[in-house]
Every structure is written in structure tokens, then in C-alpha cells.
Amino acid sequence: MQEEVTQKTIALSIQTAKLTASVLQKALKKLLEAQKKKKSRLHQGKQTLRQLMKHNTGVSNIEITDENIKAFDHTAKKYGVDFALKKDISTQPPRYLVFFKGRDADVLTAAFKEFSAKNLNREKKPSIRKLLSQMREKTKQHRQREKVKTKERGQEL
Predict the structure, then answer these.
(1) Residues 17-27 pLDDT 10s
(2) What contacts 24+ positions apart, CB below 8 Å, involve 38-41?
């Protein structure tokens, strides 16, 4: 099979008195550095929708609730998913949409499985704050008992 070869033409202008190999080498190194910087400008992780669209890939979205945004953010960072959050205020209560690259769908599925398992475990565990408030109530009841101390002074026969 014949391999497809892509060709690219680059215009490079150098202003010099005498064109030597070292001058040409320095100019090409600067050109390559500039191209590396240009390619590495793509954002990763949480970003705006416009930055996500610059990746030139298909974008998909899912809906998420308000309480789960921070927890989802942590899980998405762990899996290296590029995503953008968008708040839709046209509905009451407002809903949040998570946009992600289409090729990250499998990774996002795995991230959501872990995220949902973590939420289920969190619901099963008793809340520490609730336990603490119950213990405070018990201690208040204990303190409300009257402490009666009687001191008798004097001689008893």
C-alpha cells in the first residue's frame, strides 16, 4: 500500500547581511520552538466551551445536578477528561450541562461509574455531623440533671 504523505510549505524570511549555515540553523530552531508553543496552547481539564471547541473534535454533553459538580470535577481530573461546564438558567431550578470531547466517551463512562459508586458509599455511611449533633443533645440532657450537694457543718451527736 502506498502511504499518504502530507506536504506543508513554510515561508521563512530572514534579514541578514550574509546568509550562513549557522544563521539559517538559528532561524529554523526559532521557527520550530514557535510551532511547539502554538500546538501546546490547547487547554486540558476544566475549561470554557470555546476552548473545548478549539480541539477540533466532536463535542457531547450530559446533564448533572448542582450538588455533584465539585465531586465530578475531582473524578474528571483523575481520569484526564477535558470538559466544560455550562449553566442553563432558562429552567427553574437551573441545570448544569457537562460538555466533553466525543472520543472521551468511554473514559467518561468509567469516570461516572466510579463517581456514582463513591456517591452510593457516601450515602450509606452515617453523617458525622448528624452523629455529632445527636451526641450534643445527649450531653445537654445529661447536664440538665440537678446536682444537689449538701454540706452540713457542725457537730453531730
Answers:
(1) 888 999 999 99
(2) none
